[in-house]
Structures are given as structure tokens and as C-alpha cells.
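Thread amino acids onto this structure.
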């Protein structure tokens, strides 16, 4: 049986973020240093598609994508509101400044925010680390079934 086309291809990641954002630049550097092919999407030039955002929210939850420490969150007064999943997604689509960046995707694996431990687990092709390991750096990552 011939190997699947994906079996011989090197790993590739998709990074959503802003070129001027320090955590986004760190994520791009992390993967470049390990010679991983990167597809970078600058959210200033091209906003995240609703379907792509849904991919992240389905795996991590909408609250994990919300940058609660950012100025946009404080300025909008969102700390005083109780929002359900759909309301958070609506706000994230309306204002990209509310996203916890970078959003990184490798196949079905996704992460939000700086998540070095999760990214290392992806590259080692082993189960993801405990999300608490990434919380030290503010990130959230998840593998399906993990």
C-alpha cells in the first residue's frame, strides 16, 4: 500500500496574528528555528474567517480565545459582562484586538496565546503537555482527544 500523501510531507503550521505583536513574532521564530513550514496570516490584512475561528472555539472554547488582559477587553468593559459562547464568538469576529494571539494550528491541533509546551509536544508527536504548563506563559493548547 502506498504511503498517504501527508506521511511524507514535513509538518506545517498556520499562525494567525499581527506582525507587530510580540507573542506572534515569538511563535513564528519558534517554528522557524525548528525549520517548520509556516503559513502566516496577518489579521490586519485579512481578518480571521468565521469557519476558522469556529475551529479554534470548538477545540479550546471561546473563553480561551479572549484576551482578558488586553486593553481592548478593558476598554470595552467586558470584565463586567456575562457572555455565553455565541456572544464571545460574535465579539471576537467583530474586534480582532480581543483575540489572544497568536492562534496556531497544525492539522487538527490548535493553540491560543504563547504555548511553547504545546508546540513542543506537537513537534515531538506525543500527547500535549498539561495545559497548566502553558498557563505559565498565558497560552492554551489542545489536541483532539487529549
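Threaded sequence (146 positions):
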Amino acid at each position: 500500500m502506498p504511503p498517504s500523501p501527508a506521511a511524507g510531507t514535513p509538518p506545517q503550521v498556520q499562525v494567525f496574528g499581527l506582525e507587530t505583536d510580540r507573542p506572534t513574532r515569538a511563535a513564528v521564530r519558534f517554528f522557524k528555528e525548528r525549520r517548520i513550514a509556516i503559513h502566516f496570516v496577518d489579521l490586519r490584512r485579512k481578518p480571521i474567517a468565521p469557519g476558522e475561528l469556529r475551529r479554534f472555539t470548538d477545540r479550546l472554547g471561546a473563553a480561551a480565545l479572549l484576551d482578558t488582559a488586553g486593553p481592548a477587553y478593558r476598554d470595552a468593559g467586558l470584565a463586567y459582562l456575562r457572555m455565553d459562547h455565541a456572544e464571545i464568538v460574535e465579539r471576537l469576529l467583530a474586534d480582532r484586538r480581543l483575540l489572544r494571539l497568536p492562534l496556531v494550528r497544525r492539522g487538527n491541533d490548535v493553540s491560543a496565546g504563547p504555548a511553547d509546551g504545546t508546540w513542543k509536544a506537537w513537534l515531538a508527536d506525543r500527547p500535549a503537555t498539561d495545559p497548566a504548563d502553558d498557563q505559565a506563559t498565558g497560552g492554551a493548547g489542545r489536541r483532539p482527544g487529549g
